[in-house]
User: Fold these one by one.
Assistant:
Number 1:
Amino acid sequence: MTMFLSLRVRASQGTQAIADLRKATPTGFRGRPKIRRGPCAADCSACRDACPTQAIGLAPVTLDLGRCVFCDACAEGCPEAKIEFTPEPRMGGNEPSDLTVREGEEEIVRVRASAAFSRLFGRSLKMRQVSAGGCNACELELNAVTNVNFDVQRFGIEWVASPRHADALVLTGPLTRNMKEAVQLAWDAMPDPRFIVAVGACAISGGLYDGAAGVDRGFLERVGPSLYVPGCPPHPLTFVNAVLDLLGIA
């Protein structure tokens, strides 16, 4: 009976595993935006005024993915319909400046591969995730990268339970004062060589909590991330592709 039930489930759901994560595009996902070239109405600041995280710049129009929470308010508020969110999941960057989308820009900035990281971690990367005051949305998406759909372990990339076993510290959340010591302890416990991945708008810029009294981002100011993965929350494909790009894995 159990076998027949399993067969019925398989027949109804089909194959869940994504064969090629590098070519997959999620359906219904609000991903990397495009900003059409063209004049704005005189003195118009509708998109900037609608943004809750000050991610929009004007003249020319720019959008900082490190601050963007992908709420679509800018696209809805623009009378010229200049901003459009596409389903493209690949949005990571090596530097904060890589996360700025500019008006009329067609080429997508990719994460630049690191020869050193490829040599050290290209065949095996162990990651330890710390939620530094996150809402659990980024954490849920990161947990999904190891499920049957994405199966990141096929590339030798795995989560570990202890920072002592980790190569990369994956941070989510705005870095609250209550988590300040925990983040530092996790980093100190990691053996060299090691690096940091900032995941989500909160970790990258503070997001909606930028400047809040309960936030202390001193750690990231002292120890800069080697990889930035934008989103609110990021799609698993955004995270996986950014890591694979950094390691130079085709």
Note: DSSP finds nine helices and ten strands in the chain.
Number 2:
Amino acid sequence: MNMTTKAALAAIALTASMFAPQAQAATPVDHALVNLIDFNSDNLGNSFAGAGDFSDHFTFTTDASAYITDALLHTVKTEVTISSFGLYLASNNSLVGSSAIEVSETDSSVAQAGSGYWRFSGVNIAANTDYYVAVNGSVLSTSGTAYGGTVFITAVPEPETYAMLLGGLGIMAFLARRRKAA
């Protein structure tokens, strides 16, 4: 094969690849988590009429520093496949903490592929900052299905709270020492 033939075949292959169907990621759909503002829990989820890829963003902003104690997600594994589940900073789409792992149905601390239960926990978040919980995956069922979960959030104690705790412990130690000396 001469150089002209190779160049022609390469040009044809390149042109054909431009018109071949390309797999595209689903456009994110935004939902709001409103109860997280008051350091509660809020539900997240979505229902689908047919098969295909999805990308859901559950947005929220806290009014004070907070701590996500747990975020759980459940699917029927034969109907929905989750490819990622995590917390992201909205300003630059960066992952906050570690992404979720798929966990066992009976022991949520043990990773087990295919269980349909996903979890991340122990993430600190800053006040007045926009975040989103992203859920990406594929719907396998053509007859319709759904996934659901919950995010639990608590307030991070202020430094004054820690100071009062230490002061109280100091007073308890002083009283115990005084009682022992008497």
Note: DSSP finds two helices and eleven strands in the chain.
Number 3:
Amino acid sequence: MKELSIDELLAIKKTHNIAIVDVRSPKEYNEDHIEGSINIPLLEDDERALVGTLYKTQGKERAVKEGIDITAPKLKFFHEKFTDISSKHDKVLVYCFRGGMRSGALCSYISSTGIEVYKLLGGYKSYRKHVIDYLENISDTLKCILLHGNTGAGKTEILIDLKKQGIPVLDLEKYAKNSGSVYGEIYYSDGHQTQKRFESLLFNSLSKNNDKFVFLESESRKIGKVFIPKALSDSMKNGYHIFVESSLEKRVSRLVEDYSKSKTKDDDKLINATLMLKDSLGKKIVDELIDKINIKDYSYVARYLIENYYDNLYKHSNDKYSYEFKVSSDDYKETLTRLIRFYEDVKGDNYEK
């Protein structure tokens, strides 16, 4: 049986049209997977749970027999899928959790039908170890340029436009599926992020960056349900820090756009998030804000939260850094020009504070 190590796979991905097939259950795949892989599960979630229970209660032999009984009727399906996949790719690789029984059995069957297929040595676990090792050593090769600023200052918008200019950007909020504070998950409506998936997305982005500099937004180590790896967090603290300012009116406008118009259009989510502020703002204020949401007065809510919640919440973290300089996103074109110039200066080792 042909095998590839994780290092060999990642190298081949750069130069070949390789299909990567994850044969783990959908639940395992959704928790994390190799970038670009497709999920063709050997066992569905309920089937995997049944086999696992039999393994624990009746032993390996009984579990293996049940696994064979479940997968045998699917062999025609697998053959058809892999025939189609192999016709569209230079190479086909299969992986399961440890690179053991599931991927081994399927590779043996597919190979017996005349289709060339590789197995990932060590399976997903080898990939996971590679990601962890990479992120643990990221501080040796990465220099971060941090954008700070109060809520609604336009930092995310700036990062998007910097990326369009071909400048390396790491979107922590996007990968964490959370844009901060109690309203953070509203912006991302497709569920919580797992720590493993978050770290894989960081690895995917950073490992493609041939430049040691990267722009990102200042964040605490915890974003929503996930944590920034320590080495990356250390690189952020030791990086360059730039403060983005904006007028109150512009900030209110951005929050209204982000949380009530273009993304969610769901007042129930806004209300549920606002209810979480009772301890911070008091029941009377929260009830008043909910009344304003119900009559679509989003500007009132945004303005109140900026002046009485957000700015107080982030004042300490904003004050603890020494900034290279400050920019105003109200003059958006000038802000982008200055940030790009700064990036070019530090990249060329021409920056003097």
Note: The chain has two domains: 3-132, 137-347.
Number 4:
Amino acid sequence: MKKLLQVDFDFAGPFGEQMSAALKDLAESINHEPGIIWKIWTENQQGQLAGGIYLFEDEASANAYLTMHTARLKAMGVAQVRGQLFDVNLPLSAINNAPLTVK
């Protein structure tokens, strides 16, 4: 079953175009993570938050990524990483035009 991973953490920047330029290589590397389908990058400059919404093929892939990503962020100085896994209800998501395949 596909798993949605929601991650967020306190982040002082950069944001916007500067974030895009600074993290381009990281974004490209995420495409090679086992089980990844897609990621939506999230940022909130006013709230000083960043993170992402990821879709993985399965729970094992999502958990492995969360463990690795948490360690990577902590090595970059992020004190606390919040991550939650969710099941995806494919039939209801399809009604609302989610880019998913119903199986």
Note: The longest strand covers residues 36-44.
